[in-house]
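Subject: sequence -> structure tokens, single chain

Hey, anyone have a minute? Need the predicted structure for the following. Not urgent.
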Amino acid sequence: MADNGSSRVDTPTNVSLSAGVSESLEYKTVSVFLVLLVCCVGIVGNIMVVLVVLTTRHMRTPTNCYLVSLAIADLTVLVAAGLPNVSDSLTGTWNFGHAGCLGITYLQYLGINVSSCSITAFTVERYIAICHPMKAQTVCTVSRAKKIITGVWIFTCVYCMLWFFLVDIQVREDGHQQCGYRVKRELYLPIYLIDFAIFYVIPLLLAIVLYGLIARVLYLSPLPNQPDATTLRRSCREPPETSKGGRQGRPKSAMSSRKQVTKMLAVVVILFALLWMPYRTLVLINSFVSTPYLDAWFLLFCRICIYANSAINPVIYNAMSQKFRSAFRGLYRCPACLMTLFTSLAPKNPKRRPGSSKIRASFSHH
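Reply:
Had a minute. Here:
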């Protein structure tokens, strides 16, 4: 990459920044292969998460509502950040024009911030459900989860609008374009620090505290009495696990079910912290040093970590949740699931078509 020192100082590290892209064939090959692999796996996996929750009635729990929001946010990151990065790696220049620079940057940060907020939301939901089971009867509901998710998306959509005024097309000395920042470091530095605090530091600190309290209840406190366990199951709508054959097995104890869900969500939070750490650390350091560190290979490593964070969650659900495994298998076995999804989203006709109840009944058994 050829650019002068001042442009490097005033160019922060973006998720799909074309700065730092190497012209070597080796870099282009490795970059395109890894980004396409991670993005394809992540896009397919997150679409499956959305489908199984929307088309499987017993999967529509408050926690899974937040996981759907997380999946949509991860899809936004993979499409808006991962796929443009393939074009950057192949051509070494920005190919989407001024409108693409504004829109893609906006969608990148929208997906990133909604992802962080969704993780915070299901962390708080787990804390209430386990540590305050009586309160969970009115708080831990699907309708309230939908309202919270709507509020998160509206807040983040408005907050991320500031990026429309911060980015623009820049032309480097070699004639190649890049989607860069039109403001000086003194202006964008506070924005990065606010983002770093609101969407990374605070969610992680909150998660550490809340999961510590959850662990104390699950592993150190005596088993809750039967009314509490019954109330929790009724309020959070967590169905019993299924056996390996896909049929409904014997219900696990409330404590065992809560431990499994909490472990899965804790792994999601831990991977979020670890996979975002290289990029967040790089941006924080580059915001203060006189010459930013923009090594192409290290930037690629940071990007792959970000894309992997958006792609790995469906793998975690499949590995740690029997309910998700069964639902994924049902999705493979039932090609009519897409039709069921579109039918459920379409306006209802007053007259029921013959046989529709049979279709819905047959699908509910998957």
